[in-house]
Amino acid sequence: MIQQILQRGNRQGMTMREITELTDLKQHQVEFKVQKLIKDGIVHKSADRIDNAYLYTLTSYEELTPPVECSPVRLDNVIKHLNKQKENVNSPAHYSSGTVECIDAIESMLTKEEFIGFLRGNILKYQWRYKQKNGAEDLKKAQWYFDKLKEKEGV
Predict the structure, then answer these.
(1) pLDDT confidence of residue 90
(2) Would you say 9 and 18 are in contact if contact means Cβ atoms under 8 Å apart?
(3) How far apart are the first and last CA of the chain?
């Protein structure tokens, strides 16, 4: 039943709530069935949350029904999510709320060698944790620090 819902649903993914609303089951029952389908390799769970919810899709679609168009609301939410990820990497609000961005203040109080060590440590940190914490966003942050390191090294 879940597979048929996902087959007919939005190929960009459906939230657990959206799937549950299309069944006569309780949410915990749907969650159990979806987890089994994930384990069996039939359903894929998104790595990132959009509007605080994961999206679920089939790993492959039979061409039985034409694809459903992405709703404008869902598309807007995806765009907002991607823009937020970009902001979280390049200029996170929690580091740039004052007149000086945090990274600039850190650089100004460290020697060049210390700042390079700081950058290298952050590269390692974000690469180390990306699978357990923020996925692709952490890899983008590691890349940001790597680019900053290249800039400081003159590479």
Answers:
(1) 67
(2) yes
(3) 55
Question: Phi then psi for 58, rounded to 5 degrees?
Answer: -75, 150
Query: Cα–Cα distances in Å, from 82 out to 106, 137, 146?
Result: 28, 10, 21
Q: Which residues contact 120 (CB under 8 A, 6 or more apart)?
A: 149
Distance (Å, rounded) from C-alpha 114 to C-alpha 155?
18
Domain spans of the chain?
1-90, 92-153
Both tokens assigned to 105? 């203040």
Lowest-pLDDT range of 28-32, 96-100, 108-112: 96-100
Neighbours of 146 (CB within 10 A): 16
Across the strands, what pairs with 56? 14, 45
140 neighbors 89 (Cβ within 8 angstroms): yes
Q: Under CATH, which number does the domain 1-90 receive?
A: 1.10.10.10
